[in-house]
Amino acid sequence: QVQLVESGGGLVQPGGSLRLSCAASGFTFSSSGMSWYRQAPGKEREFVAIIGGSSGSTVYADSVKGRFTISRDNAKNTVYLQMNSLKPEDTAVYYCHSISHNLWGQGTQVTVSS
Question: What's the average model confidence in pLDDT over 74-84?
Answer without folding.
Answer: 97
